[in-house]
What we know:
Blueprint: E1 10-17, E2 30-37, E3 42-46, H1 53-60, E4 68-73, E5 76-77, H2 83-91, E6 93-96, H3 108-113, H4 122-130, H5 135-143, H6 160-173, E7 178-182, H7 190-207, E8 210-214, H8 218-224, E9 227-232, E10 235-240, H9 247-253
Parallel strand pairs: 3-8, 3-9, 6-7, 7-8
Antiparallel strand pairs: 1-2, 1-4, 4-5, 9-10
Helix pairs in contact: 5-6
Adenosine-5'-diphosphate binds near residues 49 and 52.
Amino acid sequence: METLAQGLSVRLDGVTARHPASGEGAPPAIAQLSLSISPGEQVAVIGPSGAGKTTFLALIGAALQPVSGSVFLDEQSIWQCSSAALRRARSTLFYAPQTPPLPPRQRVVTALLAARLPTQSLLQSLSQLVYPRGVDQAIEALAQFDLADKIWERVDRLSGGERQRVGLARALLSPAKLWLIDEPLSALDPARSQQAISTLTRVARARGVTLIVSLHQVGVATSAFPRVIGLRHGRCEFDLPGVQVTQDRLAQLYAQKEHELTGAPIIDDLAPAPSAPKIVHCR
Ligand SMILES: Nc1ncnc2c1ncn2[C@@H]1O[C@H](COP(=O)(O)OP(=O)(O)O)[C@@H](O)[C@H]1O
Ligand SMILES: [Mg+2]
């Protein structure tokens, strides 16, 4: 099932973005953000609600055009290329929104196999609806999330957590070189959360896929990700290895929103840094 892909690189250069529905005078959702992410890197994005995490993923996923600045995928500026090139860029990434867009009456198998569509012709895609091929791969992907027995189930008969895990299993079927996953654990209990994150990071690493995940669970972010970006008011507050994200930094990141700080890691702020300091990419 492993198909080796060279992960996409990502670069944001002075990016400012607004939510399409926000008023003219509203502060930007992302403000003057510059950073780069290497192919195959695994990055967690944390921060209180409204910090800009979803907007950040939408910008990288070519779903939202910045007001100013540039977004590069594999060093191609995605809004300064032809619409065909923009379509091609979108087809090389997989974006999993917090609520997966699974048609309620669809069977799980169909929803999963649709994730392979970018590599299929229109005819293959249509025939896929009638004669699903790749069912073994779909079962294998579901099994990673303990859902293999749901393969023929209808999506609207699944619980919220099961639907969320089906949404994540779609990543495993996708041929994408960049996975953008928005709050994948919001409907999962701690054990399922652990399983979901270790599956995503393990498979992404094995395939060389670049993985960017927004998370509410800061403990999961700091323990499972080599790099954690803290966003607040659309700005980068820190960009550090997970093991260097101290309680102190988290307290600052979530100031006035402490109730959102769940599963924080226990790191003694006075202890020496466990590994060499990482270059801070954002400014
Ligand atoms: N539906 C919306 N209408 C208007 N503004 C919005 C909407 N959604 C988000 N925003 C603006 O964008 C900012 C960032 O939102 P978002 O990226 O969804 O943050 P997060 O994912 O960290 O909760 C919000 O603080 C708000 O100002
Ligand atoms: Mg969000």
